[in-house]
Predict the 3D structure of the following.
Amino acid sequence: MSKIYPNAAAALAGLPQDGMTIMSGGFGLCGIPENLIVALRDSGAKNLTVISNNAGVDGFGLGLLLESKQTKKMISSYVGENKEFERQFLSGELELEFNPQGTLAERIRAGGAGIPGFYTKTGVGTLVAEGKEHKDFDGATYVLETALKADISLIKAWKADEEGNLIYRKTARNFNPMMATAGKITIVEVEEIVACGELDADNIHTPGIYVDRIVCGSFEKRIENRTIRAKEMA
Amino acid sequence: MDKIYPSAQAALDGLIFNGARIMIGGFGFAGLPEDLIDALAKTNARQLTIIICDAGGNGAVLEKLFENRQVSKLITSYVGSDDMISARYLDGEFEVEFVPQGTLAEAIRCGGAGIPAFYTKTGVHTVVAAGKEHKLFAGIEYIMETAIRADIALIHAETADFEGNLTYKKTARNFNPIMATAATHTIVEVEKLVATGEIDPDNVHTPGIYVDRIIQSIIPKHIEHLKVRNV
Amino acid sequence: MAWTRDQLAARAAKELRDGFYVNLGIGIPTLVANHIPAGVNVTLQSENGMLGMGPYPYEDEIDPDLINAGKQTISELPHSSYFSSSDSFAMIRGGHINLSILGAMEVSQNGDLANWMVPGKMVKGMGGAMDLVAGVRRCVVVMDHCSKDGRSKLLKKCELPLTGVRVVDLIITDLGVFEVDKVGNSPLRLIELADGISVEEIAAKTQADFVVDLK
């Protein structure tokens, strides 16, 4: 039973349906499953609820699904970098649910970990807490947040072995490991597929149990803000 | 601020007090911080609450804490097969609170993550659920479990750098990384101390922010049940 | 003849499917690893923080840092990975483990399981058993049909303190195999007999209600 697929379209084949909930890894444009997003757009599935920390930029990443009007709702923590997003949101075409970033991460982890709800201090007394159950622990007030799960999780990792064990690279890890646990089907695109045994068992970031399909791709890896410093003179 | 201490006793100095809640990493003997337990047994601290996955096999270094009558409460998923500890437990010398292993792990993780409580299916309709809040999510019944924190966590890791970044080896990881996050002070014994920069940042298991004091471990490791196959 | 420990393990191994992630309990369930059918790849999870558990190590592979949930030395495989206890139980509780095979003291006809304490005897603790039965997708019990004093371990209602309610899907005893209706209130379904065992013998030794539906 091989988990390896020849390309992103093949890895998604037969899975996307209208109305599905999709998780997509990444922080800004760093660590996003760029080829799988293109393949999801090409699948034509509509009315999608997309859970991702951000919403991509115009013409790249999750911005593609907005342009093609396949996204019905976004669950995100920050969406500031996208004109089309702004237009659709202001015109009422697009629903948006803001989650504080840490709450979003924890809700996704809870979804994968069989925890239906948990309490957090984040957002108490703000808009975020409205309509949610409150509870006091040791004299402090916390708000109940519930788990998030997805029909499909789209993940970007650095390397996979044939079993689907994954490692991520630097800050491209971000939301990918927890989203990998919270999808009914988890599809991963990587820069390299290696034989089992080549990844150090002590340093696997996502065990293969969470991974259903793997595809090896090439990546544009667009940089959102190219910030550099000059070399110091010797 | 130097995190490196010359000995286990020096690393405990000033942190241990009567009535302290102490987390101890390890699963069986794997990843058990034996140097630090040994040093704890040499303090005069009494009325300790010990939080540990399981209470060890025969001859475990943990015995010393019970021999010295330092423990008043044990929070654990399994008392283990240590004859001395079992005997004192049956004599009622200390209180035992049993927590399902996964709930214990999650409660400790939450203790370190600022989550005061969470819901789980584990233990619903068993003695574990008695007196706890029940709640339905999507028609399924769960119970509320609360976070567990401690005053001190005693941790065993394979490698530390001078910042306290840690790596664990194989199944000696177990409760160590979560306990490292859930105590006011975390003390770590390591097999190898390396220069900062020698651990690949992608492979740090416990970031140094969680680590207060580090010592070199010197007690050799033990095996509870040696099993081999023939060539 | 009632099934031996190895025959029980071999029967339980028939529940394995290619690609399954499986957690095996201590005792007879551990023996299931010796009977994995050819062509079926299963990955064994050990709740102390490992996927891809290998067999006992060779003498020169012994490592105190590498043990299973029974605290026995084991070995790793090329696809193994290690993680913390919280990550391990997130995997279990989150429903990612296809199958758990475990022992029991009592099982009720609606799938209640008791396997961790006997009032009046030393209680060692539930370890990870409650989390496993609450979290895994399918739970198979392997046990002797009767206790040492000859009493049925398949009951209308468990008498011992429970590990989980409506959690068992299939019971394999040394006398036969039973399907459990853990959602509704149907009796057990006896679907297989051990070699040479009669329905009458099982009826005489079973306190739980069951119907016969041999396959």
Observations:
- The radius of gyration of chain C is 17 Å.
- The mean pLDDT of chain C is 95.
- The first helix of chain C runs from residue 5 to 13.
- Helices of chain C lie at 5-13, 28-31, 85-93, 129-135, 199-205.
